[in-house]
Design goal:
- The chain is mainly alpha-helical and 210 residues long.
- It has helices at residues 3-8, 10-44, 49-61, 64-75, 79-103, 107-115, 120-153, 162-172, 175-203.
- The protein has one domain (3-205): MetI-like fold.
- The longest helix has 35 residues, at 10-44.
- It is elongated, with a radius of gyration of 20 Å.
- The termini are far apart.
C-alpha cells in the first residue's frame, strides 16, 4: 500500500465512494418499490407467485458481466445500464422475503384485526406489515450487501464507484487503488449491514430474543 497515493487522491476516492453509495441507493430503492408492488399482487393473487419468482430467479442467475453485456447494445455505457442490472438482482431477494414475512403472520392475528373492524387495507399496513418487518429487513440486508458487491462490477460499463479504483489498479498493475477500492467496498457492506440490523431492532423491539 502506498499511503502517499491515497493522500494525493482523497478527492477521487471520496467521489468514487459517493458514486458507489448513489448507485447502491438507487438500485435498492427502485428494487424495493417494484418488489413491494409485485409481492402485494402475489399476496392477493397467489397464482402469480410461480411466474413472478420464476422470472426474478432467472434474472438472478444470469452472471453480472453477461447481463451488463446484454444491456449495453440497448442502453449503452450508462447509468441506466448499471441500474437495470443492479435492480434485477434485488428482485428475487426482496419478493421472497416480503411474501414470506406476510405469510408468517399468524391467522389468529388477522382474524382479530378483522374482528376489530379493520379493512383489508388497514389490516395489511397497520398489522401485517409491521409483523413482517423482521423478515423483510433480513431480506434488505442480503440485498444491500449483494448490491454493494455488484456495483463494483458496474465499473465495466463506466459506472462502478469503488469498482473503478479496482479496475484501475488491475489495468495498471498497481495494488494501492485495487486494495483501496476492495477494502472500502468491504467496509461499506459491513457498515450497511450493521445499520440495517440496528434499524430492524429499533423498529421491531418485540422480535428481540431474550
Amino acid at each position: 500500500m502506498r499511503w502517499d497515493w491515497i493522500a494525493r487522491n482523497l478527492d477521487l476516492i471520496g467521489d468514487r465512494l459517493a458514486q458507489h453509495l448513489v448507485l447502491t441507493g438507487i438500485a435498492l430503492g427502485v428494487g424495493f418499490i417494484i418488489s413491494l408492488v409485485l409481492s402485494l399482487a402475489i399476496y392477493r393473487w397467489r397464482r402469480l407467485y410461480p411466474p413472478i419468482t420464476g422470472l426474478a430467479g432467472t434474472l438472478y442467475t444470469i452472471p453480472s458481466l453477461a447481463l451488463f453485456a446484454l444491456l449495453v447494445p440497448f442502453t449503452g455505457l450508462s447509468l441506466l445500464t448499471a441500474e437495470i442490472a443492479l435492480v434485477s438482482y434485488t428482485l428475487l431477494i426482496f419478493i421472497r422475503n416480503i411474501v414470506a414475512g406476510l405469510d408468517g403472520v399468524p391467522a389468529e392475528i388477522r382474524e382479530a384485526a378483522d374482528g376489530m373492524g379493520y379493512t383489508s387495507w388497514q389490516r395489511l399496513w397497520q398489522v401485517e406489515m409491521p409483523l413482517a418487518l423482521p423478515v423483510i429487513v433480513a431480506g434488505a440486508r442480503v440485498a444491500t450487501v449483494t448490491t454493494i458487491g455488484l456495483v463494483t462490477v458496474a465499473a465495466f460499463v463506466g459506472q462502478g464507484g469503488l469498482g473503478q479504483l479496482i479496475l484501475d489498479g488491475l489495468r495498471r498493475f498497481f495494488a494501492t487503488p485495487l486494495y483501496t477500492g476492495a477494502l472500502l467496498s468491504l467496509a461499506l457492506a459491513l457498515l450497511a449491514d450493521l445499520a440495517l440490523l440496528g434499524i430492524q431492532r429499533a423498529l421491531t423491539p418485540w422480535s428481540r430474543t431474550r
